[in-house]
Amino acid sequence: MGTITGRRAAYERARKRRSTVVATVSSLAVVTAIVVLVPKMPRWDRVHESFFNGERFANSLPRLLDAFVLDIKIFAWSMPAIVALALLVAITRNSRSAALFPLRILTIAYTDIMRGVPIILWIYLIGFGVPGLGIDRPWNSPLIWGSVALVLTYASYIAEVFRAGIESVHESQRAAARSLGLSSWQTMRHVVLPQAIRRVIPPLMNDMVSLQKDVALVSLIGPIEILRQAGIDKSKFANFTPYIAAAAVFLLITIPLTRTTDWLIERERRRTTGTRIS
């Protein structure tokens, strides 16, 4: 048995080394092709000046970083509200109480309507429509209602993620909880939700990555965050490099979040199946 186990371990190590070598060589080949071939394009000099101007990049970056603080603030106050609303919607829609049937219909209508309209339209409709009612300051701020539009839209998507997690918990778990005398709410709180939330963390992280990018859409109704500041600098310099700088700033946040998501997915796969991603 020990010999078989040792051979298996050696085989796994050899396969992993081979996969690493192949991945490294293929990546280097692609990067080399890009570095060598792209500069040989007929108008590369114009593209380089318009999109990759080092002076414009360095000039715009401090202002873009200052503006990015607003993106982080919108993300920070929107994310907890999204998770709370989405969880409430998912629990309500999964409820089996006859008394809550009207609320289940309401949550179904909410998720269908919010997911059926592009988020940019909701930002325009809510961000301009609600302040147009004549609400006193500061509650008529497009920043507030643009954030509300983000919360309402993203909560409808994340509610479905939570609902999928809740429904993935086997019915035997509920039956066991009822046999112990737990009420429906106690079963949901102490038995179903802990398992469901653990299972949906990876897809939830993917939605958080998307949210971090989509907060920039709030700039369409007025607030000067990083996307709007990049547009201002682009018009000022007649150069597109500020957009490249803004993209680089977003990547500083989204790439670590994406890698964290991949790590969580791999950990969950190892926990549930005992396998690794090659």
Question: In terms of structural class, how would the helical and strand content be classed?
Answer: mainly alpha
The residue-averaged pLDDT reads 83
CATH architecture type of the largest domain: Orthogonal Bundle
Biggest pleated sheet: none
CATH-defined topology of the largest domain: MetI-like fold
Please identify the top-level CATH class of the largest domain.
Mainly Alpha
Overall shape: it is flat
- Ends: how far apart? 25 Å
Number of domain modules: 2
Model description:
- The chain is mainly α.
- The protein has helices at 2-37, 44-51, 54-94, 101-116, 119-129, 142-168, 171-179, 184-214, 226-237, 241-273.
- It has two domains: 1-39; 60-273, MetI-like fold, CATH 1.10.3720.
- Helix content is 81%, strand content 0%.
- The model has no long low-confidence stretch (mean pLDDT 83).
